[in-house]
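Hey, sorry to bother you again with one of my protein questions. I've been puzzling over a protein and I'd love to understand its fold better. Take your time with it, there's no hurry, and the full record follows here:
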Amino acid sequence: MPTVDAALTEFLTSGLALGAATRDDRLVPDVVRPGGLRVEPGGEEVTIFLATAVGARLLRNVESNRRLAVVASNVQDNRSVQLKGRVIEIRPAREDERPLMDQYRARFARMLEPLGVPKNFALRSQIWPAVAIRFRVEALFLQTPGPSAGQPLEAPLRDPGRVKP
């Protein structure tokens, strides 16, 4: 079973563009932007936080099939990873988890600023009320554009250098 190591945890919690994806019983995909992510102690599980206002269809899907994929991308250099796994808990986010979501939103806003995106663009995104979706990581993939995209991530995450668009 793969685990999220310290280097990958640092990357995942640095304010990246996040996407949570699942599919329904007819294999129709759904993707939603989470409002934060936490790597659980031990690195075998990850919790994403999803505003309830935007996640109804994704929630129905994960309640039905328990499958989830999360993509995390650095919008400045396109460094990206994908985590896939089985959902083990769906619950309302707790009030003590809200600061984690506020922190994510602030980091994401800082990451967008050098690209000319106004800080208030990210800060005004709705994050609350939210649901917490915890999943056990079953696979990790490198998704940075280039010859290694789609390959399993088996070593510590390394900076591949700036990726040209």
